[in-house]
C-alpha cells in the first residue's frame, strides 16, 4: 500500500542523510522524496512516499522518531490530506493536428505550457500522483522526450497539522 | 571567562562531562588535541595498540561502571579502525563517545591524506554523530554527545573534529552548558500507568509465567527491582546472553540463559508459558529460534526504553515503553498498594513441571558431558574451576565462540556488570581490551578474560597495553587449536568438512608470547594439574597471566536450538534431541 510520510526535523548537517540511510539500511524503499526548510528555517520538512503494510509503516515511523533530529512524524495517508507533485514534460511535435491535441490535453488536465519552440512543447502540471500518471498515459502515443517529476508535497486536511 | 584553544576546550569539556579516562591513539589530525592532553592532568589518556581496542576498552569500562566510555582516534585509518568497536557498542546499547580527528575543514572532500568521511562511514552504527565546524561549538557539542549517549536507549556517539577547529592559536571563550535540552530528543521514562496495572494483573493471575530479562535491566541498573518483583511473583526467571547477572545466577528461581545455547528448562518454560514478561530484551533471533513457532500459548508483556524494539519481531500484547527501573518500581508499588498476591498452589504445578525439565536435560542438575580425565580437559570444567578459584565474583569478559557460550552457561553471575561480552555484534577480539577497561574501572576486582586461541589473536597486541598501564588481567585461553564454534557448525551442518577452521601447527607458543610482553604465562595440559595451577596463577594479583589450557577438541556446546524449530527444540548432546 502506498504511504505518504511527513517528517519535521532539525535543519542540521547530515539530518537528511540519516533519514535516507535509515530507509536503505532497513530495506525500505523510498519512491519519492521532497525536502526543504519550512517557514522556520531551523526546521526541515520532508515528505516521502513509500510502500508497505501497517507493521512496516509502524516500524518506519518508530525508527524515524528514534533519529535524534526528528521532531514529528505523521503518516498523511492515514487521514484526509492534500498531496501535490509537480511535473515538467517535454513533447516533440511538428504536426499541426498533433500540436492541437497536446494543447487540449494540457487544458483538460489544467496544466500550462511554459515553453514553445517550433518542434517542442514544455508543459507544467501540478497534481496528485494519480493525475500526473494519467497525463502520462494520455500522452503516451506522442513523442515524449523528457519527464521531470518532483516528489510529493503533502499536508493534512482540516484541523490537523505537523508543527513543533 | 577563560579564552582557550579548541584542543584545550575539548579536554576541559570532557572534564566537565565527568570524563576521567580516554582510550586512544594519536595521529596527525588529532595532534592539537593530544598536545592539549599533554598539558593537563585531569583527564588521563591510555594509549592502546590499535584503535579497535581503544573503543572496546572504553566499552568495557562503560559496561563495568555504567558511565559513558570515551575513545579518541585520528582521522582516516584511525577512524575506520574504530568502526568495529563502535558497531559492537551500538548493537549492545553501550554509551560511548568516540572522538575522531578529521582533516582540516578546507581539505574535506579533496581526498586529502588520511581523510575518511567518518560521519558517513559510521552513520548506520551510531546513535548520533556530529561534525564540529567551529571552535565555539566544541563545548556544547560535547555536552550534547554525552547527554545523548547516556540517556534513553544508550549508544555510541561520534564527534568528528577537523584539525583547524582545534588550532592552538585561535582562542575563544569557554563555557560548558549547565544542562542540555534538545527539543527533538526527549526519551520516555515512566511508562503508561494503565499498561503497568494491566501487566501486573496479568502476571499475578497467570498460571505459567516466565520473566525473560535482557541487557536493558543491567544498563538501567534495574536488577534490584527485577529481583524483588520475581520473588513477589514467585516466577521463574531466564536471562539473555546480555542479561546474565540481572538476576542472581545461583538463585533457585533462575533457569539459566535462554535461546540458541540456552538451557532446556529455560527454553521449554518459554515455549509453554502463558505469560512471557520481557524486560529490557529485544526478541533477538538468537533467542526466539523460528519466530512463527515462538511461544505459541503466551501473552507477551514487553518493557523497553526503545519503542522500535517493541513489536518489532514479536507483537506485544501489553507494550510498555519506559525505563526498566521506573516501570518495575511502579509495578511493585501497584502490587503492594492493591495487595495483589499470587496463588502459590497454582504456581507449584508450574514449578514441578519446570523441575521435571531440569532433571530431564538440565545442565545444572547433573553433568551432561563426559568427565575430564588426564590430558582430556573439558572446556566446561575449566569454566567451573575458574568460577571456584574466583569465588564466583570476578568480572568475566569474553570473546566470541564456544568459550563464550561455556562461560555464559557455567559461570553463574550473581551480580550485574560482571559478565561483559559482545552479544549483538559478536566481535572476536573484544575480550582482552574490554578486560582492560573493566580492570581500570575496578582495580580491586579480579578480571578474567575467557577467550579462545582464535579470538585472542584478533587483539593480542593489547598485551603490550596491559604492560604499559599495569592492568593485571587473567587471560584464560580455551585452546582447542580450532575455531571451535565454526567447527561445531561444520560438524553439524557440513558433514565435518573443516573449511579454514583449523590452525594446524601455526599457533604461537602463548606462554613465550606473554613473557615477551613482560607477563606471566602457563600452559595447562593435564586435568589433574588444572585446579592447583589456576589457584597458583590467580594468586599473582599484580601480574597479567596468560593461562593457556589445552581443551578437548571435539567438544560441542549444548544445548543447541535446532534451526527452524521452536524454542524448546534442542540438541541436548551430539546424539540426542528433544
TrEMBL record, chain A:
This protein's UniProt keywords: Amino-acid biosynthesis, Branched-chain amino acid biosynthesis, Transferase
The species this protein was found in: SAR92 clade bacterium
Entry protein name: Acetolactate synthase small subunit
Keyword Coiled coil: no
Pathway: Amino-acid biosynthesis; L-valine biosynthesis; L-valine from pyruvate: step 1/4; Amino-acid biosynthesis; L-isoleucine biosynthesis; L-isoleucine from 2-oxobutanoate: step 1/4
GO molecular function per UniProt: acetolactate synthase activity; acetolactate synthase regulator activity
Keyword Glycoprotein: no
Domain of life: Bacteria
Record's function text: Catalyzes the conversion of 2 pyruvate molecules into acetolactate in the first common step of the biosynthetic pathway of the branched-amino acids such as leucine, isoleucine, and valine.
EC number: 2.2.1.6
Pfam families referenced in this protein's UniProt entry, alphabetically: ACT_AHAS_ss (PF22629), ALS_ss_C (PF10369)
Gene Ontology biological process terms from the UniProt entry: isoleucine biosynthetic process; L-valine biosynthetic process
InterPro entries, per the entry: Acetalactate_synth_ssu (IPR004789), Acetolactate_synth/TF_NikR_C (IPR027271), Acetolactate_synth_ssu_C (IPR019455), ACT-like_dom_sf (IPR045865), ACT_dom (IPR002912), AHAS_ACT (IPR039557), AHAS_small-like_ACT (IPR054480)
Amino acid at each position: 500500500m502506498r504511504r505518504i510520510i511527513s517528517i519535521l526535523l532539525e535543519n542540521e548537517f547530515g539530518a537528511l542523510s540519516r533519514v535516507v540511510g535509515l530507509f536503505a539500511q532497513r530495506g525500505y524503499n523510498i519512491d519519492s522524496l521532497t525536502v526543504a526548510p519550512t517557514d522556520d528555517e531551523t526546521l526541515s520538512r520532508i515528505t516521502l512516499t513509500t510502500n508497505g503494510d501497517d507493521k512496516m509503516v509502524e516500524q518506519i515511523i518508530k525508527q524515524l522518531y528514534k533519529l535524534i533530529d526528528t521532531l514529528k512524524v505523521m503518516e498523511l495517508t492515514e487521514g484526509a490530506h492534500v498531496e501535490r507533485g509537480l511535473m515538467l514534460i517535454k513533447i516533440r511535435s511538428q504536426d499541426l493536428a498533433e500540436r492541437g491535441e497536446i494543447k487540449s490535453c494540457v487544458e483538460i488536465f489544467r496544466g500550462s505550457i511554459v515553453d514553445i519552440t517550433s518542434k517542442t512543447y514544455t508543459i507544467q502540471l501540478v497534481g496528485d500522483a494519480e493525475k500526473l500518471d494519467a497525463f502520462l498515459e494520455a500522452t503516451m502515443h506522442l513523442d515524449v522526450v523528457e519527464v521531470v517529476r518532483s516528489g510529493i508535497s503533502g499536508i493534512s486536511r482540516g484541523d490537523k497539522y505537523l508543527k513543533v | 571567562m577563560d579564552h582557550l584553544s579548541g584542543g584545550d576546550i575539548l579536554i576541559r569539556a570532557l572534564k566537565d562531562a565527568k570524563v576521567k579516562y580516554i582510550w586512544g591513539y594519536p595521529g596527525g589530525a588529532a595532534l592539537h588535541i593530544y598536545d592539549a592532553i599533554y598539558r593537563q592532568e585531569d583527564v588521563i589518556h591510555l594509549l592502546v595498540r590499535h584503535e579497535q581496542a581503544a573503543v572496546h576498552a572504553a566499552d568495557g569500562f562503560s559496561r563495568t561502571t555504567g558511565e559513558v566510555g570515551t575513545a579518541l582516534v585520528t582521522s582516516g585509518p584511525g577512524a575506520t579502525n574504530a568502526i568495529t568497536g563502535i558497531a559492537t557498542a551500538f548493537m549492545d546499547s553501550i554509551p560511548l563517545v568516540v572522538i575522531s580527528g578529521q582533516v582540516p575543514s578546507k581539505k574535506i572532500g579533496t581526498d586529502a591524506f588520511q581523510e575518511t568521511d567518518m560521519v558517513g562511514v559510521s552513520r548506520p552504527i551510531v546513535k548520533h554523530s556530529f561534525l564540529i565546524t567551529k571552535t565555539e561549538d566544541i563545548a556544547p557539542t560535547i555536552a550534547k554527545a554525552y547527554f545523548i549517549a547516556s540517556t534513553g536507549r544508550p549508544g555510541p556517539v561520534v564527534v568528528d573534529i577537523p584539525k583547524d577547529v582545534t588550532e592552538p592559536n585561535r582562542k575563544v571563550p569557554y563555557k560548558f552548558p549547565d544542562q542540555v535540552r534538545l527539543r527533538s530528543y526527549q526519551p520516555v521514562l515512566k511508562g503508561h500507568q494503565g499498561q503497568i496495572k494491566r501487566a501486573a494483573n496479568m502476571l499475578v493471575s497467570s498460571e505459567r509465567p516466565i520473566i525473560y530479562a535482557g541487557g536493558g535491566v543491567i544498563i538501567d541498573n534495574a536488577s534490584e527491582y527485577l529481583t524483588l518483583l520475581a520473588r513477589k511473583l514467585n516466577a521463574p526467571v531466564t536471562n539473555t546472553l546480555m542479561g546474565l547477572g540481572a538476576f542472581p545466577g545461583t538463585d533457585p528461581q533462575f533457569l539459566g540463559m535462554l535461546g540458541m545455547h540456552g538451557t532446556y528448562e529455560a527454553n521449554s518454560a518459554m515455549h509453554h508459558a502463558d505469560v512471557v514478561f520481557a524486560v529490557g530484551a529485544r526478541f533477538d533471533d538468537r533467542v526466539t529460534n523460528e519466530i512463527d513457532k515462538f511461544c505459541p500459548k503466551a501473552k507477551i508483556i514487553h518493557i523497553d526504553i526503545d519503542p522500535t524494539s517493541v513489536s518489532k519481531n514479536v507483537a506485544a500484547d501489553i507494550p510498555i515503553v519506559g525505563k526498566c527501573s521506573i516501570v518495575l518500581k511502579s509495578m511493585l508499588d501497584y502490587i503492594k498498594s492493591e495487595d495483589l498476591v499470587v496463588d502459590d498452589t497454582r504456581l507449584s504445578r508450574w514449578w514441578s513441571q519446570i523441575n521435571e525439565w531440569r532433571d530431564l536435560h538440565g545442565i545444572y542438575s547433573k553433568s551432561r558431558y563426559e568427565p575430564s580425565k588426564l590430558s582430556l580437559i573439558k572446556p566446561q570444567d575449566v569454566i567451573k574451576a575458574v568460577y571456584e578459584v574466583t569465588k564466583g565474583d570476578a568480572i568475566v569478559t569474553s570473546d566470541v565462540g564456544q568459550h563464550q557460550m561455556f562461560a555464559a552457561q557455567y559461570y553463574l553471575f550473581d551480580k550485574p556488570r560482571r559478565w561483559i561480552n559482545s552479544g549483538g555484534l559478536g566481535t572476536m577480539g573484544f575480550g582482552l581490551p574490554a578486560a582492560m577497561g573493566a580492570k581500570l574501572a575496578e582495580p580491586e576486582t579480579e578480571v578474567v578474560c575467557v577467550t579462545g586461541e582464535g579470538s585472542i589473536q584478533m587483539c593480542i597486541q593489547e598485551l603490550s597495553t596491559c604492560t604499559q598501564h599495569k592492568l593485571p588481567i587473567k587471560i584464560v585461553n580455551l585452546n582447542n587449536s580450532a575455531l571451535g564454534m565454526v567447527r561445531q557448525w561444520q560438524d553439524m551442518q557440513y558433514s565435518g568438512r573443516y573449511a579454514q577452521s583449523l590452525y594446524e601447527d601455526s599457533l604461537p607458543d602463548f606462554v613465550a608470547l606473554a613473557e615477551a610482553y613482560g607477563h606471566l604465562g602457563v600452559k595447562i595440559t593435564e586435568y589433574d594439574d588444572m585446579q592447583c595451577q589456576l589457584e597458583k596463577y590467580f594468586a599473582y594479583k599484580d601480574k597479567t597471566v596468560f593461562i593457556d589450557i589445552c581443551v578437548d577438541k571435539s567438544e560441542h556446546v549444548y544445548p543447541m536450538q535446532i534451526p527452524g524449530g521452536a524454542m524448546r527444540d534442542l540438541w541436548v548432546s551430539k546424539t540426542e534431541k528433544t
